[in-house]
Design brief:
Layout: H1 3-12, H2 25-35, H3 53-65, H4 76-98, H5 105-138, H6 142-162
Helix pairs in contact: 3-4, 5-6
Length: about 170
């Protein structure tokens, strides 16, 4: 217990003072135990709960990403450091989001998908629009030109569809 807590208890009369103003430790301890609620005592022993391996792994991963040592058992200081790093990252992301530097991934994916579909549809319809003009300039049959253009455009679109960029 702190010196201030003892002085407050003496002033409130929860522990007895000797006639000369000193405190007898044995009497003070007994009076303290009688007048203190056990639920309010900070000195009660805590039962330590086991920490999930996923949490320990997360701490190690966060520390490694920052170039900090994370071998052996994880200490409280290491866990606290990882927690503060994660809070700093989250605060930076929130700030970027508020400054409109960050976009919602699902929304961006939907937008790119829609744009890609529109582009694909425009290319798929292009041979029907230009085949007659090209055939007239070349002096050949329009239907044959359209079929040839459609074949090559579809092959090209199929090649583009195979590209899967990794945005991680």
């Amino acid at each position: 217990m702190s010196h201030v807590a003892v002085l407050k208890a003496a002033k409130a009369g929860r522990i007895p003072l000797e006639p000369d103003g000193t405190i007898d430790p044995a009497k003070a301890d007994a009076a303290w135990a009688r007048s203190t609620e056990p639920e309010r005592s900070r000195a009660k022993p805590e039962k330590l709960k086991p920490v999930a391996e996923a949490a320990v792994g997360s701490v190690r991963e966060t520390l490694k990403e920052q170039g900090l040592p994370a071998s052996g058992s994880v200490t409280f200081v290491q866990a606290r450091t990882a927690h503060e790093i994660a809070k700093a990252h989250l605060a930076r992301l929130r700030l970027q989001e508020r400054k409109v530097e960050l976009v919602d991934r699902a929304r961006a994916t939907a937008l790119v998908f829609r744009l890609a579909r529109e582009e694909r549809d425009a290319w798929a319809n292009w041979p029907a629009r230009v085949a007659a003009l090209m055939a007239a300039e070349l002096g050949v049959e329009a239907h044959a030109v359209q079929k040839l253009l459609e074949t090559h455009v579809r092959v090209h679109l199929a090649e583009l569809a195979e590209v899967r960029p990794d945005f991680r």
